[in-house]
Design a protein that fits this description.
This protein has 406 residues and is mainly α. The chain is built from 18 helices and no strands. Helix 3 packs antiparallel against helix 4 and helix 11 packs parallel to helix 17. The radius of gyration is 20 Å and the shape is globular.
């Protein structure tokens, strides 16, 4: 065994532990976001919310995520990945638990903004941390596998929705969302800042970090990433946060809707795993472009499905390809920036993407209120996703197998 093999043997258990530790925090994030889609379906019936209010409620979460991603990304470059990861995890956990005590729509929206801030901040920081801690030949796969914990969180949220919400109410779901606060105590000892970040001595001011992302060496990548993130997040939150409600509009009961969405959600896992395999075989651009194109086709199919079987099959394809593309996007983004602004670049791209997450659910609510057909709404997502695929194809650079920029 040569020295490199010995080094790999030593570091691989540490990498697996890091991936699992960060992955669990990612899973809790997804559980919280997923629960929103189920909670709003129950809440709309209990509080007699208008479609516009339903759209506003789901958008508020994304507003918090947009602010959190931008601020936390910049702070993580200045103060370290570990510290910001822990604080964002605590913020969203506490806000989620307090949401169970809300007695008015306004208070609940305020708490969801705070929870969104923590959620939005944690995701780009966690992906940057893992990306910087894994060798180039395994980096893309590791980050996609990290993102696969998102599917586990959605599945968990669907199970909570199916078994807990109908029996104990939406408040119980929010209380379960506070559990990650306890996990943050474990993370304090189980993870460390990546050696690459520790070695880097350049700590830029907030203004310098923002300007560096838009400097000539990174401008083309930043434009591509902002388009990609906007189109993917716009389509994801527009479609998936409305899935239980869309099922209701198609004539299914609340419990039946939750059951079907759980089935569709299970398809996310193979979507991630196939993307994790292909991303190191065929490259980041291939996975992103192909999975986005197939997501667009699935969106058009789902929106215009005419039978129960077609609806479930289209929903499963939508979950499979959309979440595979998400994994590819998180793996690709940190690779395009140097260490000094890597978290800033990821955070700002994610933040701009969240603008799409703000607009889309509110837009769907407005269109549903105006009795626009679901099929027509999903054609909007079809076109949007194609724009994201085109941006990667024409503006993206391949990073498979390349070392991160110091």
């Amino acid at each position: 065994m040569n020295m490199n093999d010995k080094a790999d043997a030593v570091t691989k258990p540490k990498q697996r532990k890091l991936l699992f530790s960060a992955g669990l925090s990612w899973m809790f994030d997804a559980m919280d976001v997923g629960l929103i889609s189920f909670i709003i379906a129950a809440l709309a019936a209990e509080w007699s919310l208008l479609p516009e209010q339903t759209g506003l409620f789901t958008s508020i979460n994304s507003i918090g995520m947009a602010v959190g991603a931008a601020i936390s990304g910049i702070l993580a470059d200045k103060y370290g990945r570990k510290a910001i990861l822990l604080w964002t995890l605590l913020i969203f956990s506490v806000a989620s638990g307090l949401s169970a005590l809300a007695t008015s729509f306004t208070v609940l929206c305020l708490l969801r903004f705070v929870a969104g801030f923590g959620l939005g901040g944690e995701l780009p920081v966690a992906s940057t941390l893992v990306s910087e801690s894994v060798p180039a030949k395994e980096r893309g796969r590791a980050v996609v596998l990290l993102e696969s914990f998102w599917a586990a969180g959605w599945i968990l949220s669907a199970l909570i929705a199916y078994f807990v919400i109908p029996k104990y109410g939406w408040q119980a779901a929010f209380i379960l969302g506070a559990v990650p606060a306890l996990y943050a105590l474990y993370l304090r000892k189980s993870i460390q800042d990546p050696p690459r970040y520790v070695r880097s001595t350049e700590r830029l001011t907030l203004g310098q970090s923002f300007m560096s992302v838009w400097a000539s060496p990174h401008r083309k990548s930043t434009i591509m990433l902002w388009i990609l993130w906007f189109t993917v997040v716009f389509s994801y939150y527009g479609m998936f946060l409305w899935l239980p409600t869309v099922m209701g509009l198609k004539g299914f009961s609340l419990v039946k809707s939750f059951e079907y969405v759980l089935i569709m959600t299970l398809a996310q896992l193979p979507g991630y795993f196939t993307a994790a395999y292909l991303i190191e075989k065929l490259g980041r651009k291939f996975v992103l472009v192909v999975y986005l194109l197939l997501t667009a086709v699935s969106a058009a199919w789902f929106g215009n499905a005419t039978s129960e079987g077609m609806l479930i099959a289209a929903g499963m394809c939508l979950s499979f390809f959309n979440l595979g593309a998400w994994g590819g996007m998180y793996a690709y983004t940190p690779e395009l920036y140097p260490t000094s602004v890597r978290s800033t670049g990821v955070g700002l791209a994610a933040s701009f993407g969240r603008v799409g997450g703000i607009i889309a659910p509110f837009m769907v609510g407005m269109l549903v209120a105006r009795q626009v057909q679901i099929g027509s709404i999903f054609w909007i997502f079809f076109v949007t996703i194609l724009i994201g695929a085109a941006a990667v194809l024409w503006l993206g650079t391949e990073t498979k197998g390349k070392e991160l920029i110091d």
